[in-house]
Amino acid sequence: MSSPARTRVRFAPSPTGYLHVGGARTALFNWLFAKHIGGDFLLRIEDTDQTRYDAKALVDLIADLKWLGLQWDEGPEVGGPHEPYFQSQRLPLYQKHARELVAGGHAYPCFCTSERMDELREVQKRNNLPTSYDRLCRSIPPETAAQRVAAGEKHTIRLKVPFNGDTVFKDFLRGTITYQNRILDDLVLLKTDLFPTYHLANVIDDHYMQITHVLRGDEWIPSTPRHVLLYQAFGWEPPTFVHLPVILGPDGGKLSKRKGAASVGDYRELGYLPETLINFLSLLGWNPGGDEEYMERDRLIEVFTLEKINPKSAVFDEKKLEWLNGQYFLRRDVDFFMPLVKPLWIKAGADATAFSEDYFRTAVALLKDRSKRLPDFVAYGMYFFQEPQAYDEKTAKKYFGPGSESLLETLHAGIASLPAFDTAHLETLYKETAEKLGKKGGDLIHPSRLAISGIPFGPGLYELMVALGKDAVLRRMHAASAAIKSGQVKTVLTAA
RNA sequence: GGUGUGUUCGUCUAGUGGUUAGGACGCUGCCCUCUCACGGCGGAAGCAGGGGUUCAACUCCCCUACGCACUACCA
Questions:
Q1: Exposed (0-12), middle (13-18) or buried (19+): which is A198, by Cβ within 10 Å?
Q2: Catalytic residue among A56, A66, A125, A257, which?
Q3: Taking the model in full, what pTM does it have?
């Protein structure tokens, strides 16, 4: 036996679009496994489909992985001992191996055109037969085939799959999986354009890059027997296969852009933190066995094991994601939020020069524990930077009724004559005024809150007033009372 | 059609022959409270169906149903 190999895993995306959360989860599990066990995590770009090549997709993909913090040990940008990590730059290697397979009698040139293949498939489908290549070119004598190839005739290279017997492999999560060779057809290894198919490139690269564990989506299970056959043809040892369950949308179908957010970029824009996504995705199809749910990156690495992966596909529950994000908001401090939130406020119209850094920090401090996503700071916090433009309709109906203008004026006068503008004095003022008027505290507090913020919820009123400053509070109280008096209260529906 | 794979509350899950089937999100009642959020205490809600094996099945086996995937010179 050889000495135990260093554990090496890879994430091998095809840069054909945005990074889907399913792909992100696959990358994450690879990464967690490598980090947990002290192995290597590689990034390999499977760009062997020239017709679907998209340069922007690659840039986005790399940016998304970095945003999530899934740094690779080998791959694009960082290099490594097995460069290049782009399959499109490894063509000679695949072609050489394809030729060797032909020479060794494991593969053969196929001259069938795409048109013939389409026709064949159509006929088979129509007759309710399994669709598979009829192996027409397999019976061409090797010398004849070689001559035709030498003459420059267009062809693919196909693997000779045995007619009988079974191909058996072990999936780490599901155990032994058996396929009858007779239902496997002779797959294409090398395309007409001399690019390899996924099957060929993937097997060759995993071998030379010394990949020990293949963690990939379970849509690859049906292809695995073909890969195993390839490993056998080359005389190589296959890696351990771990097929991960898929992530589904709320309707039990695929998670798709059509039905809402589906990519890492979508969730970033919705205001979720990368650590939230990491934590949430890790819990989709895996869990450490206990009640722990809030887990930071290091904790996940510490407890992550392949054995605890669940083979069942899981539905992406955005409500729970939102809750988790809120848990992170509770635990992160003001410094953490400043660079994330301040630009959002400025973009929404906050005048950065009119407010001090401390003022921004106070607003963050007051808002972060009651926010679930980054945009909440804007949706429910712009009143820190501008006077309310309108008042929440439902609440205005309740608290800006007849007589409320004089109540606001009374409060206004009280605040104006306060010896000190702090929470203690404000609280005393409100208590005494309520008592004097024979009202409950809430009867004064709610209209005040609405007057100064325009919305019916938010930080404690006294804290909020102190944060906004005496002048702003007085101005807003007065503006609200004036609006009520004139019957010109502008209202708006607030989405809570 | 064929092949494969999966099936514990609505959702994420714990469970590995004997449990009042546990937790979380969401929903909901109460408490805390100036609102919201947080937090605390409760509640409703689940082993797909049928056969076996066994003294005993959510747990093991078989069948059925349903979901999903694959069935390309895409990955």
A1: middle
A2: A257
A3: 0.95
